[in-house]
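Residues and backbone
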Amino acid sequence: MDEQTTTGRRRSDAGATPVTVVIGIGILVALFAGVITTMGAVASNESSGAQHAADAAALGGARGVLDDLPTDLLLGFTTPADIPLMVGGGTCLQNGRNEAARLASANGANLTSYCFNVWADEVSVSVKLRSTAVSGDKVSAKAEAETTFTADECRIDPGFELPTEEPDPPGDDEDEDEGPPPLPPGPMSTWINCGIGRQVIEFRPLVGRFFFRELADDVEDVDPRLTK
């Protein structure tokens, strides 16, 4: 092999080396970019999943509050102001928590905080995903919902009048046998509006309280809604 051929080969090999390095770097950059893109997509999916779980938990909690109302109000009320107190009368009640936790779990998350504010008709929740495919903390999310049954704003038909006892007529003979006292009037129907439309209630004079007539059926058709 002559010297000219050897020299040409060395030059060819020397020229190929930078090209190989550039190609290798390009492949590494492409792989790195692909990994970053994939991790970003996974993180985005997990954020969406966490928010979906939070939304489901908030709506589930509100649904649970509605489903508990017939039991909460079973004993009746004397005035509408009694209603929020009978539901719990607090700003961080646990009404509906079980249903919220169930739906959070069904969507791959744990319920980390829960409050139902009966005065504001607000269910607020926080959830955290049970697992993550990327490094770092598991994704958390928050949501709020309302039942639309505004217990603190219930209003009875303003035209409804409670029965009153009529005074005994004056008699000439106090010892006269007046017979048995008259029976109290029977139940009297009217309506109440607690934000979900007019609902039938009845006043029972014998006990002096109002009672919802078909509350379970009324709230069954109510759809809670997200507020945040």
